[in-house]
Structure prediction request, 139 residues.
Amino acid sequence: MDIPATPAPALEWGERHVTFFDPATQTRRTLSSYSEAKQLLQVTSDPFVCTIATIFAMKCIADNCSETEIERFKQEIQRESQCLKDLIKSEAPISDFLTRLLKASTRSLSINGMKTDIAHEAIRISIELEEYYSLPKTS
Prediction:
């Protein structure tokens, strides 16, 4: 008996990557580093792709930040957030999402907690995006 293939989700987070359907190219993409996300931001203007690349880049920035003092960590995240805003070519409301990620980092009293809060908020935002853009599951 043949079991039909289950379509892949339009967006899927892994431990150190995000895989998503790019509606502009009709292909699946995987980002696994800040530099890949940054490169993608420089070459695309698709709102969904830009937003996913931006929130993944912010997660990478938080994960890779070596600051051990909370205020310096927050300053680094804010500085990098502004750098990302300068790269974006899309009209998507990405600034609002970056603001949400920055606010998420203020909920905890430790840097590890802040990094976790940013990761969780990034996933919440991506779920909203997937629903907003009504992206189909792909094969």
